[in-house]
Write a structure and sequence with these properties.
Layout lengths: L12 E3 L5 E3 L3 H7 L10 H36 L3 H17 L1 H11 L1 H19 L6 H31 L6 H4 L3 E3 L2 E3 L11 H30 L1 H21 L23 H14 L4 H12 L4 H28 L3 H19 L6 H30 L4 H10 L2 H10 L2
Antiparallel strand pairs: 1-2, 3-4
Helix pairs in contact: 2-3, 2-6, 2-8, 2-9, 2-11, 3-6, 3-16, 4-5, 4-6, 5-6, 5-9, 6-8, 8-9, 8-12, 8-14, 10-16, 11-12, 12-13, 12-14, 13-14
Length: 423
């Protein structure tokens, strides 16, 4: 920004590989001032190890998030609180996945990916283990599951997602510009154009976020049997130990950080709110956030209203999560191969809208409800994995990590208030 004139420098827009105009507003500064750093490359094995570690963290984190709908039914009995209040606790934990992203990015820029993921994993497990001793006190659950677990999860999620974006950003810019710029948590360094992935960008993100959906499907079923056989307190403890046992070792396989001789400051690109295409992207994704967590919280309840047992309701929820897993992986492949990330994201948002507006209200039988589960699960799952790719394709890979925290922060209302407002 020109401090004397109070204006931003003219941004260069070039066509990207998928046909969309791509913004490279930060290229000139990075190319002209960034010192040369030691070349750092990631071969296929290291790239996919990073994907696996991130996917495992997502597996346990979202597995716990999506199991809350089962835990809260039992907590109604132990706490004496209403289902709406307990849904509020779950919404609080979920919202930190989004609203903590700006703070998470600053933490990562200081201590690196590995240590940030380690701290996040410690907090996640600690929140659940301590919550196991307070299952009769809803206020303590707000603090331990909502805040402690939520903060740790928000940090881990940002590490898992942004680590993949480091590779994605190289792929939607011309090679000559990619050779000059690479952004690692607000650090601009000069490196060779070797991101984590070139051909399978969206597919890699699909596997990372798909791990979360798979964890949701498996852990929700497991949590149901744990609550039934061991009680809600021991279920919290076991979930906490699982979080520690998976996320802490997985953090070791993430890179510490990439350093350079100079660390120029980099601001979040709040000025994007002046751009119509950014407002369109933010507006569309914010509205899409409102129905995202209604299905996992209320599918078991809706299933029981249809006359099915609790166990059948859990299986139905697992089917929705499996459809979400399929959507994240397949949508990533489609975005890489056929349609591009923006078009794929638009189709998935259409799946979410039409399934909720048309199919769910007509779901008087398991057959019609299955149609809803498939299309809504695919749409909701792909929404998470495709949004960062769409941002990269639209605004330029080198701007992605300066825009994603801004976009994710705007999602807070949809994540926090909607499930709490449901009857």
């Amino acid at each position: 920004m020109d401090t004397e004139k109070g204006t931003y420098p003219e941004r260069q827009v070039v066509p990207s590989q998928d046909g969309h105009d791509t913004d490279h507003s930060s290229d000139d500064h990075a190319a002209g001032s960034a010192p040369k750093a030691e070349e750092q490359t990631y071969d296929d094995r290291k790239a996919w190890v990073t994907v696996a570690a991130s996917s495992l963290t997502m597996f346990v984190y979202l597995g716990v998030i999506y199991s809350w709908g089962i835990l809260q039914v039992k907590l109604v009995e132990t706490t004496g609180s209403s289902l709406t209040t307990l849904t509020f606790v779950g919404s609080m934990a979920t919202s930190f996945m989004i609203c903590f992203s700006i703070v998470s990015d600053k933490i990562i820029s200081r201590i690196g990916y590995r240590l940030a993921a380690l701290i996040g994993g410690l907090f996640m497990g600690l929140g659940e283990v301590l919550a196991s001793f307070t299952t009769h006190h809803v206020v303590a659950l707000f603090f331990l599951h909502g805040l402690v677990f939520g903060l740790g999860g928000g940090l881990c999620i940002f590490v898992s997602a942004t680590r993949l974006l480091l590779g994605l950003q190289m792929s939607y810019v011309p090679l000559a510009q990619a050779m000059t710029t690479n952004i690692i948590s607000y650090q601009s360094v000069s490196t060779a154009p070797m991101g984590l992935f070139k051909k399978h960008k969206a597919l890699a993100m699909g596997f990372v976020f798909g791990g979360g959906s798979l964890g949701s499907a498996i852990m929700s079923v497991v949590a149901n049997y744990l609550v039934k056989d061991l009680g809600v307190s021991w279920t919290f403890r076991i979930l906490g130990f699982v979080l520690w046992g998976v996320s802490i070792p997985a953090s070791y396989f993430l890179p510490r950080r990439i350093t350079s001789g100079k660390k120029p400051s980099r601001q979040l690109q709040w000025y994007r709110f002046k751009e119509p295409r950014f407002l369109l992207l933010v507006g569309g994704t914010v509205l899409s956030c409102f129905p995202l967590f209604i299905p996992p919280y209320f599918i078991p309840i809706f299933s029981r209203s249809m006359g099915y047992t609790k166990e059948i309701g859990i299986i139905i929820l697992a089917c929705w999560n499996l459809a979400s897993t399929l959507g994240r992986v397949v949508a990533g492949w489609v975005a890489d191969t056929f349609l591009g990330p923006v078009e794929s994201l638009a189709i998935c948002m259409l799946f979410m809208a039409l399934s909720s507006l048309i199919v769910w209200p007509l779901s008087s039988s398991i057959g019609i409800f299955s149609v809803y589960l498939i299309f809504n699960g695919i749409g909701c799952g792909a929404f998470f994995s495709l949004t960062p790719i769409a941002v990269s394709a639209t605004f330029g890979g080198e701007n992605t990590l300066s825009i994603i925290p801004v976009v994710w922060t705007t999602w807070f209302c949809g994540f926090f208030f909607v499930s709490h407002s449901m009857p």
